[in-house]
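Obj: model holo form, ligand = SN-glycerol-1-phosphate.
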Amino acid sequence: MHNLYSSILKAKSRGKKQFAVLIDPDKFSPDELLKLAEESKVDLLMIGGSILTNGNFEKCVETIKKKSKIPLLIFPGNNLQISSKADGILLLSLISGRNPEMLIGKHVIAAPLLKASRLEIIPTGYMLIESGKQTAALYMSGTAPIPSDKDDIAMCTAMAGEMLGLKMIYMDAGSGAKNCVPGQMIKKVSSGIQVPLIIGGGISTPEKAVKACKAGADIIVVGNALEKDRSLLKKIANAIHSF
Ligand code: 1GP
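Output (holo structure tokens):
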């Protein structure tokens, strides 16, 4: 039995911000990244992507679990990205969109697999935020994002997700986003919900991570920037943990 969600809640109640490193199995070179993540006391590893082309998802999960003690959460781009060898999965419902497949359809297909797995399932309201360019997540999900200046829509969407019983809200500007989720929107959304708030997409400096923490994020996710510059991992981890 895992207790990832309860440790996320515990960190939130203590005001401790958490750092999650997102691993793209297509670009993964394990040793260096995992070593840095361990040294920097990264709180969570996440794995997944809007589209994977190498067919090495399962192997990648296996390698990470062998080489690292950091809890591994699947951040699934679709219902093919399920592996019992991870610790947990964000069961994402794309509540910013109106595509029934991403709200419930894929989940129906995944349900028996998830039931048979030993994964800790964390139902999560996933919200895509407009970020200045078309992102893979937007294109693949066939949905429109929440406009970046519509804080009220974002807040009401997150509140509705919480009322429906979703246990976390993940606001994502999309991988490699030009503009991150605006601080003002994070502030508004975090004021409207009690559940942990995850922020990701385009966070490429310690300053951007701190800005999101200040605005009310509980978990910061970084992927793309670390693929370009591994030395950022420690810097961003320090900035988040000393917040
Ligand atoms: C994307 O939020 C994640 O879904 C991470 O985004 O790759 O831009 O860090 P980046």
